[in-house]
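User: Hey, quick favor. My workstation is busy. Could you predict this chain's structure for me?
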Amino acid sequence: MIICRLLSQLAVPAFFFISGYFYFTKYHEHNPTTYKSKNRARLKSLVMPYIVWNAIFMIVSFLTDKILLQSTIADFLQENGGIRLFWDCGRDSISKNLLEVEMPKDRCPIDGPLWFMRDLIMLSLVSPLILFLSKYAGKIGLIVMAALMVLNIWFPFTFITSVGFFFFWLGAYFQINDVSIFSPNRRRRTLQHIAAIVVFLVAVMLYGRSETLDYYFYRIFTVVGIFSLFDFALLLVKKLNINPIEGISECSFFIYAAHLGSILMIVKKIVTALSLESYPVVEWILVSVLVVCTLTLAYYIFKKYLPKVLSVLTGGR
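Assistant: No problem, here it is.
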């Protein structure tokens, strides 16, 4: 399970990198006019689905509380932080970094996975700063930012995480400075893969000994492992001719946004009834497959019968 957890740590940083990379396509045209047009487009692709999905999760959570606990809407909002449900779910969990400064921990909106979209919305707004840093801070700036991210030294707010800021900036840096994502230097790529494997193995061996060490190695692994992930993806597409599964790739955002909701709870209860506790990996795979299949079916039902609603839910993707 720890192996799956570690590998999954690469997904969101990779999305941030790709988002930063493509946001600054034709960066020389990045001026107040293009800034407005880019962010106006993101009202539909990011802001609208972000608000709608969190509103749906809020309504479902309230109805669940009302049925099980007889809660009123006032009780529900007071207990869960009210409007904060849209960005950090009213949680006050904290952790201390290397400097003993208290930092927000595991802060996310009520639809948890959408913390990525929350960060991306804010990063789009501060894109002029990202452009400036990418042009003038250079590699030294990126190294400093990577160190701050690994050591959990960052501003103590929840709107932009250090992970989001670093990888969005890294993607922007590659685009703006015309750096290839896939290094032509074979020796460099080999060293990069070796470093990723070594950090991965150390993280697995040290898992559970210290929450702080786990955090550091997770972060280091994302930094050294992300380019190995891109190389692996290139291998699948170009060398082995493996492409995303038709019909599933288009509904990936829908699955991503909905997978931690009531569907997951129901599927877990069904799988638990099968008494597979002795086979946790099988149980985990079965839950994952059933959730993906159920949400894929839901996506195509929406696509056929409620296409306009689906367009709002997916931001027109």
